[in-house]
Amino acid sequence: MKPSSYFSMNMVICFIYSMSKWISTYSELLPSIGISPIAASLLGG
C-alpha cells in the first residue's frame, strides 16, 4: 500500500472515530438539554 493511501485511510478512521465520539456525547447531552429547543430551531430554521 502506498504511503498516501495509508495516510488518507488513517484520516478517514480518525474522522469516523471523532464523529462517533461526538455523536455519543451529543446523544448523552440531548435528554438533559431537552428536545424542544432543537425541534423549535429545526422548524424555525
List the helices and strands and how they pair.
Blueprint: H1 3-33, H2 35-44
Structure description:
- It is a single chain.
- This protein has one domain.
- The chain contains two helices and no strands.
- The radius of gyration is 17 Å and the shape is elongated.
- The chain has helices at residues 3-33, 35-44.
- 91% of the residues lie in helices and 0% in strands.
- The N and C termini lie far apart (46 Å).
- The protein is an all-alpha fold and 45 residues long.
- The longest helix has 31 residues, at 3-33.
- The model has no long low-confidence stretch (mean pLDDT 81).
Q: Which outline best applies?
A: elongated
Rounded to an integer, what's the Rg over CA atoms? 17 Å
Summarize the biggest pleated sheet: none
Q: For the terminal residues, how far apart are their CA atoms?
A: 46 Å
* Alpha-beta classification: mainly alpha
Strand content: under 5%
Total helical elements? 2
Low-pLDDT sequence parts: none
Q: How much helix is in the residues?
A: over 70%
